[in-house]
Structure formats: C-alpha cells, structure tokens
Design a protein that fits this description.
252 residues, mainly beta
Length: 252
Amino acid sequence: MRKAILLGCAGVIGLLSAGRALADLDIPKWIQQPDVSGRGLDVDMTRLMLADDFLCLDGTPLTDAHVWASWRGDAVADHATVAFTLKFYSDRPVSGGGADYSRPDTELWSMTFEPGDYTARLYETLGGNKAEWYTPPGVVIADDHAEVWQYNFAFPDKPFDQRRDRIYWLAVEADVSTVANERIGWKTTPLIQWNDNAVWWDGAGWQELVYPEGAHFPGMDLNLAFVITPEPATLALLGLGAAGLVARRRRK
C-alpha cells in the first residue's frame, strides 16, 4: 500500500516553491509535482499514449492542463513541429477476473493541440545527476537529460465537465514531425503518489507502468507529473477556503 497526497487549493499554493511553479497556472485543482531530484524517469510519449488518474474534488469544469516533460538527450525539437493530443477518460477500477490495476475506461473528451495552440517553457535544469529515459516496455537510458520543460494547454472554449468525487484519467500523446527522431517523455513524480500507477497504451490495451529494471527504483510505483485547473469564474463562485493535505490509501 502507498499513501497518497491529495492537495486542496490552498494547500497546493503553500507547498509550491517560488513563483516559478505557478507562473503559467491558475489556482491548481489537482497537482502531481515533477521529480527534479535527478533520480526520476521521463516516460516516452512520442506517438505513445500515456495516462494517469486523478480525483475530481469539487465538480468544476476543467479548462487547463499542464504537463512536465523532458526530451531524450536534451535534443529539443522545434516546437513548430510538435503537436499534442490530450484526452480525459472515465475510470475502470480493479475488478475480479481482470487486470489487477485500474485503467482508463470510456473516452470522454479529446483535443489535439497543434503548434501555436499551447505554450512551452524551460522549467528547470537539473544540477548533479541527470534523469533517466524510459521507452516502454524495456528501453532505459541512464543519465540521459537535465532539462525539464513545462507544457501548458488551455481549452476554455471546450471545458471538460466532471463530477465530484469521481476518478478520471488524463492521457497525453505527442507527435513530433521531424526527421531527427527527437523524442519527448512525460516526467514522473516523486515516489509519494496517489492511487494506482500510470499506464501506457500498447496498441491492444492499457499496460501498467512501474519503474523498470535499470532505473533507480525498479519495481516501484510510477505516477506522472501534471496539473489541472478549473474554470476561474466557477472557482471564484465557490469561495474556496483553506484545505489541508488529505492522506488516502491506494484504492483496491
């Protein structure tokens, strides 16, 4: 079992260090911070769909998503050649006779962000150890890259409507249309995580992600770093007050 960190809005703001983390964000609705220790992974999402789950806290529509990522070998592609597809799914929990991990179920929302439809900025450059690269199911490259990028996706004209206390999945895939074979990976969180592991789509089904052999934490649980934010007008109407940290055990 692993403990989870579920962050209320005020609790999130108190935990984020410096203005850097909030520079492109409204008040976060859900946040899983990136591992910038140099011991995390970036999981390849180049023409490969990855997904991680989150809990709807208050039922407000989502209008922004923000993802932390890195490029293999710090070989950053021209962003004029990079598109992203984001999707939201309902949750398929663990059930008898099926997989022993939860995973995305029904696709509820989808949007492709072409170059110019999103923003990107260099979030941090790691000092000391470089992070590892992972292409599922088994390619690991140690000491691969140092740059951490933040990608910001806004969709105020097509918000994702959700229901309170339900689990959803955010899925992301990148399409890099260059001949140089640059690849981008979704950055992992520190080992304190929420609920079940992230997953990847192998063409036939969703497969669970754990730290692979050759990584710093082989066999350990793996979650991905992202932020989702609500519609600002709805958030203001709610008059959200202080919220602490709530520990939850992994759902089974």
